[in-house]
Each structure stands twice: as structure tokens, then as C-alpha cells.
Amino acid sequence: MNTLLCISAHPDDEALSFGALLMQAARLGWSIHLAWATVGEKSSSLDANRRWQEALQVADLLKATAHRFGLGDGHVSMGEFIPLADRLVRELKPTVVAWPCGTSPEQHQDHRVIHEGMLNIAGRSPYASSCWCIGQPPVEPDPAFCQPQFYFCYGESLLQDSISLMAAYQSEKQKRFASPHFLRSRAEQWAVRAGTAALFAEPFMLAKGIPPADLFLREIEIESRSLIANGQLTNDSNYHFDQSMSLLSNDSGDTVFGTPATSRPTNS
Ligand SMILES: [Zn+2]
Questions:
Q1: How far is ligand 1, taken at its centre, from the CA of residue 173, in Å?
Q2: What pLDDT sits at residue 163?
Q3: Separation of CA 100 and ligand 1 centre (Å)
Q4: What structural domains and CATH numbers belong to the chain?
Q5: Are residues 73 and 110 in contact, defined by beta-carbon separation less than 8 angstroms?
């Protein structure tokens, strides 16, 4: 069975960084494990127990197993974090390991430690054992700190699912980055940058390994009412993206959206 292991500093980082990919893995029946270094007990919004209950709700929505490392919010150290994450990786032998990017100096210090720690573990792992993916920073105003190498592209229904995932963090709902509007507009911007015909995208950087096609490139559900309304797509066919995520074809193999790479202009 395919296994997706996600490791983040605080409950909500995973939903903000790659909520749609998590929902897709759940739809495909992957075994999902969510690990959190802390329960975010220093967050301005609440007590630790409530945040942990919300994390368990998220795990429930994904039929995932939750792992609580129990480290101190705001002062996670590499020395504490690495052995815990290392052990989980060795136990689960995941197909994909994912964590949110923490390279920006603006990021919470725990995000930076988790990022460095995961790079350390990936670096020591055999190349073919797992695919190690870095998701977008949970909240990052400076786009320079996310330079994606590939994208997970998706449609309206997965967007709604990923918004429901974030909505489980009720205690965070006053924060602007938790709003459905923010999540939608960010995902739309990534789709534009990806050059995909899909409506939404989540960006990823690759630390090691090969992203499995059945998670990232599997037929993508398109529920684009606007494309259908424009007559570019019809309701009665399944659509599939090519490897570059920029050509969409129907079941008969006809390109229905996008321009083949050979005739695509280098800029617009
Ligand atoms: Zn966080």
C-alpha cells in the first residue's frame, strides 16, 4: 500500500502547505500519517488541547494516523526532532514524505528547524526508498522563498475539500491565512504560474527521489464550470493532463485545452 507521511511543526501547517494533495491521497486510498512536532500551544488563539483536538479532526477527515512528538512550541531543536522523525520514517517506509518549506528568515523558527531536520534525514536515506517533497511555506509573503519544481494540479472539488480541511482548525478561523478566499486565490495564482489548464495548483520542491505519477499525475478531476461554460470542455468526458500539466486531453486522446510545447511561444 502507498503511504504518505507528512511532518510539520504545528497543526495547520500541513493543511496550509498541501491540503489538496492530502485530500487527493485520501481519495486514492493511500495510508496517510500526519506528524506534528508541537501542538502549537504558544499560538495566540488558544490552549494546546483544543488545537490537538482539531488536529485529530483533520486526521479523521483524511482517515490518517496522527503522531504527536510533544516538543515545545517555539523552541523545537534539531537534536530532539531528528531522532523522532527518523524513527517514524524507518517504521513506515513511506512512498512519499512531505513537509512545508521553512527556508525564509520570516518563517517561524520551528518551521526552519523541521525543514533543516527533514533535509538531513532525506540526505541520509537511500535514493530509491521514498520521494521527499517540500510543500509551500504555510504562510509566506515573499514568493522568492518558494521556487517550485513541480505542481499538483487540481479542480474545484479538491479545492473545496482542502478548504474543509483548514476549516477543521476552528480556533484559527479569525486569521486571514485561514480564509477560504486566501486559500482559493493562492491556489489560483500557483495555477497561473504553473501554466496549467487546471484551475488550481499546489507547488512542490523536490529534495530527493521521484514523485510517483499515481499521486501527482493521475487523471485530474476537472470541474471547471468556466471552461465548460466557454465551450472549451464538455461535461461528458474524462480529462487527463500530460506530464507537463499544460495539455489536457479527453479519453480519445484529443487535446482539448493547451498548446503543445513545440508550438508554444517562449513568452506571452
Ligand atoms: Zn506553523
A1: 15
A2: 97
A3: 9
A4: 3-221 (3.40.50.10320)
A5: yes
- 186 Cα–ligand 1 center, Å: 18
pLDDT under 50: residue ranges of the chain: 219, 221-225, 261, 264, 268
**Cα of 227 to ligand 1 centre, how many Å?**
36
Beta strands (DSSP E) in 64-165 are 65-68, 96-100, 131-135, 150-154
CA–centroid distance, 177 to ligand 1, in Å, is: 12
Q: What is the DSSP string of 87-122?
A: HHHHHH--SEEEEE---STTS-HHHHHHHHHHHHHH
3-state SS, residue 47: coil
Other CB atoms within 10 Å distance of the CB of residue 82: 17
Average pLDDT, the chain: 85
Residues found in the chain: 268
What is the DSSP code string of 173-199?
Answer: TTSGGGSHHHHHHHHHHHHHHHT-SSS
Ligand 1 centroid to Cα of residue 102, in Å, is 10
Check if the beta carbon of residue 161 is closer than 8 Å to that of residue 203: no
CA–chain centroid gap for 250, Å, is 26
pLDDT of residue 217: 74
pLDDT at 49: 86
Measured in whole angstroms, the distance separating CA 57 from the mean position of its chain's CA atoms is 18
Cell of 86: 527518523
The C-alpha cell at 262 is: 513545440
Distance, in Å, from the CA atom of 240 to the CA atom of 127, rounded to the nearest integer, reads 29
- 110 within 8 A of 76, measured Cβ to Cβ: yes
Torsions phi, psi for 247 (to 5 deg): -120, 130
Distance CA 138, CA 183 (A): 11
